[in-house]
């Protein structure tokens, strides 16, 4: 089993889903954690739960990362308070599934603010920190939707495509032997994400047998922490589908038409 007792890791969106699963698992592996989420109440509850399981440091910071100023402010506060940070997992995200012309402008703004701009603002602060430190691992949570867009996910897919492209460009700018950056591209994961993305539960029912769990995703991320890994793509068969779609888009869209229209 890995031991991260000498590592300090930031997790955004830490109070539910993948972020929470990461927090519990990394606590078991004795990591020091810096947890960022919007709800101070939920952060304090999580802090109390985790503190019962470890003597390592657990720090919490409440911030609305969809607000650019608040996002930069909290990350500046984090680097003032912590002299060493080994990892950053940009996990906070939002999805709204709706036909392109029916998607509300406010919902589009919300998705771009949290899925894209929050990552950009966090890295504007953290990249200089990691470069001065000369080591670190940045992990950005993308989506298979960013590789293979589907109906009723036009705006969401656009945010994740932007995130993947941004991460790839940052990799070319900053990656070194000890400063790493990874994108995690996921199919559907059984989390509270779908309370907003799919409030009537229809899509979740149609893909229930394919859905990943937060624990599966957290395990895959932890397995690759502090290793050079360009992408983590889950599930594997969807990753193959995305590669085939890139090579043969028209054919794959015809073959997968029924699957694409499950939302």
From TrEMBL:
Keyword terms, alphabetized: Oxidoreductase
Database matches in Gene3D superfamilies: NAD(P)-binding Rossmann-like Domain
Mitochondrion is among the record's keywords: no
UniProt keyword Oxidoreductase present: yes
PROSITE patterns: ADH_SHORT
Coiled coil: none
Any Pfam family the entry gives: adh_short
InterPro entries named in the record: NAD(P)-bd_dom_sf, Sc_DH/Rdtase_CS, SDR_fam
Family to which this protein belongs: Belongs to the short-chain dehydrogenases/reductases (SDR) family.
Protein name: SDR family oxidoreductase
Organism from which the protein derives: Amphibacillus indicireducens
């Amino acid at each position: 089993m890995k031991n991260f007792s000498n590592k300090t890791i930031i997790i955004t969106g830490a109070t539910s889903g993948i972020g929470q699963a990461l927090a519990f698992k990394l606590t078991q592996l004795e990591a020091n954690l810096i947890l960022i989420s919007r709800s101070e109440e939920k952060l304090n509850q999580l802090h109390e739960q985790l503190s019962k399981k470890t003597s390592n440091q657990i720090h919490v910071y409440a911030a609305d990362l969809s607000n650019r100023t608040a996002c930069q402010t909290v990350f500046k506060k984090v680097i003032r308070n912590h002299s060493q940070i080994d990892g950053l997992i940009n996990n906070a995200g939002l999805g709204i599934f709706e036909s392109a012309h029916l998607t509300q402008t406010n919902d589009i703004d919300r998705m771009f603010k949290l899925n894209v701009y929050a990552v950009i603002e966090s890295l504007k602060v953290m990249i200089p920190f990691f470069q001065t430190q000369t080591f670190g691992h940045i992990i950005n949570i993308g989506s298979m939707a960013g590789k293979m867009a589907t109906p009723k996910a036009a705006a969401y897919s656009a945010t994740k495509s932007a995130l993947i492209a941004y991460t790839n460009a940052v990799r070319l700018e900053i990656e070194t032997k000890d400063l790493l950056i990874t994108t995690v591209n996921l199919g559907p994961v059984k989390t509270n994400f779908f309370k907003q993305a799919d409030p009537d539960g229809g899509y979740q029912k149609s893909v229930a047998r394919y859905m990943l769990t937060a624990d599966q995703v957290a395990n895959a991320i932890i397995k690759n922490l502090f290793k050079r890994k360009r992408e983590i793509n889950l599930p594997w068969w969807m990753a193959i589908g995305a590669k085939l779609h890139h090579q043969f888009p028209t054919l794959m869209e015809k073959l997968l038409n029924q699957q694409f229209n499950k939302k």
